[in-house]
């Protein structure tokens, strides 16, 4: 069953008009990567809802903060060229971060994200990159198990925003049931 705009707004009330802009993009991306059925869809919507501030931020806000300064020169992110930290800041609904992730995502989606990283700020690519990331990290399996903690760690590297993610997940399970 495709997700409707009304369901998105019930789960993510702060999305406002953005919900309409993302309904089609989300349904297309979720179908492509097998994010189907209530457990998977609820977990995915909860996570992308949190990561994007309910579709308000498709690009990481840049200070740069101390953490963001740390993106520069991080080999694990593939940030080897001066300026990569800012150029490959978090983008899309799940905040793809780092040159290496942009390259892998671009290859999977057939996009030149190294030369056009801002493509991930467009709804269709913001949603598709999130679904690609989800699939590439095996998160459907964890969603089937209802393991929100492991899903959050794989997306965030820690448990930042866990209470909000849990609240969105609980709401999504009810709305999508």
Automatic annotation (TrEMBL):
Keyword Hydrolase belongs to the record: yes
Lipid metabolism in keyword set: no
GO function terms (MF aspect): hydrolase activity
InterPro entries: Cell_Wall_Dynamics_Protein, Glyco_hydro_19_cat, Lysozyme-like_dom_sf
UniProt keyword terms in alphabetical order: Hydrolase
Start and end residues of each Glycoside hydrolase family 19 catalytic domain: 42-136
SUPFAM superfamilies per UniProt: Lysozyme-like
Protein name, entry field: Glycoside hydrolase family 19 protein
Source organism of this protein record: Pseudomonas veronii
């Amino acid at each position: 069953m495709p997700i409707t705009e009304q369901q998105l707004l019930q789960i993510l009330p702060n999305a406002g008009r953005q919900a309409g802009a993302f309904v089609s993009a989300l349904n297309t991306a979720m179908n492509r990567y097998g994010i189907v059925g209530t457990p998977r869809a609820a977990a995915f919507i909860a996570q992308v809802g949190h990561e994007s501030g309910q579709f308000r931020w498709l690009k990481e806000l840049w200070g740069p903060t101390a953490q963001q300064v740390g993106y520069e020169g991080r080999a694990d992110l593939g940030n080897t060229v001066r300026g990569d930290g800012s150029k490959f800041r978090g983008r899309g609904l799940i905040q793809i971060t780092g040159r290496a992730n942009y390259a892998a995502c671009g290859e999977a989606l057939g996009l030149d994200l190294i030369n056009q990283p801002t493509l991930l700020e467009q709804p269709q690519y913001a949603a598709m990159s999130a679904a690609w990331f989800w699939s590439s990290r095996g998160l459907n399996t964890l969603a089937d198990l209802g393991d929100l903690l492991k899903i959050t760690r794989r997306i965030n590297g820690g448990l930042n925003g866990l209470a909000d993610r849990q609240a969105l997940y609980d709401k999504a399970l009810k709305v999508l049931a």
